[in-house]
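Handout, section B. The chain below has 435 residues.
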Amino acid sequence: MKKALVITYGCRQNLSDSEKIKGVLQNMNYEFCENPEDADLILFNTCAVRAGAEDRVYGNIGALKKLKLQNPGLIIAVCGCMTSQRRVAAKIKKSFPHVNLIFGTNSVHLLPQMLNNAENTHIFHEREDDDVYENIPSLRENKIVANLPIMFGCNNFCSYCVVPYVRGRERSRKTEDIINEARILAARGYKELQLLGQNVNSYSGDLNFPQLLSKLAKINGIERIRFISSHPKDFSPELISVMADNKKICKQLHLPFQSGSDRILKKMNRTYTRAHYVGLIESVRRAIPDIAISSDVIVGFPNEEQSDFEDTLSLINKLRLDMLFTFIYSKREGTPAAKMEPILSMEQTKSNFLRLTQAQAKISAEINGKLVGTVQDVLAEGYSKNNKDVYCGRTDGGKIVNFTSHENINFGDVLPIKIQNATAWALGGCYAERY
């Protein structure tokens, strides 16, 4: 049997794409390995959201040149968001001639054909389309929590974001196909669904998104349902109501605001205001008081002045969210923001970024610290990455919990865990029945 090494960069949607890639390869009788020297196929599934991710891919592709010389039969493939950009595909062809195969984000169903051609021709770069392909097998390594894409692409065209250009316009899966896949996952023992989409609020199958959530929550065996990501522009009262009324829908919300400045939000083409976002958070918290909320923030957007950053910092302190995913702006060729000139220096931007992360770390630590002494329901997912004597799982609110137990536990069970310590990033505890 041939061996494949699949290396994934980027978001959870990319991880889901790689699960499909592995499912197709498994059907082609590939085994999987971790060592490049053992591989007959090395495939990079790439991310284009930030320049740093692209640079790492280029570096890792270049490092394989020597291995290719030693093993001419090795197939090297590059796919994903990076290669959906024509300039990137052209650069890889020119600068890395040892790469056999390049393809984009919506062509996994053609992988067997492409690999067969790659063995005979040097490069195969097929034309992309915007169809939704069903019945592609997935090889999910996590047997407790399943990624479940419900839609692909994006119509929002935020001025800094390359996603609509590399993943195309919004396409929603049929409700029936989503429900059928969820039932299969439940029958296989999965306990939690992670619904995926660039903006799940825009789901437009046979039902709207809140209705889809309600339907999925009726499936026996599924105990938890989460979703990412949402957009403030169309986060509806109906969705808040469904989340509040259904115990299976996790009390966790990821709702990016990106900037606390109305001036910058307008330049970002985010189509909402600071006040609108604050109103949404207040509405959610009134309906679901114990909800855990996270967000995304960009620091150093072109045209951002110091006063704009101070607006962002003040919003963080006002909202006191559980977690932030913070990023320094990364210029993406082909987006409107790429033509805007920066006002703040990189030194100022890095200083602001540090202030922001320090402020949020303090807030997160204070919020998590209030959970010490409480008992939390934790879905046991496996062992801690850093200590195999410690178990790991998540609360309903999505907080990571590392815990110990003198009792034998089953992964996939929801367990009562007494929280004994907390940091800004995780909780620690033990199986509560010891008390």
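Note. The longest strand covers residues 375-383. Compare this with the example in section A.
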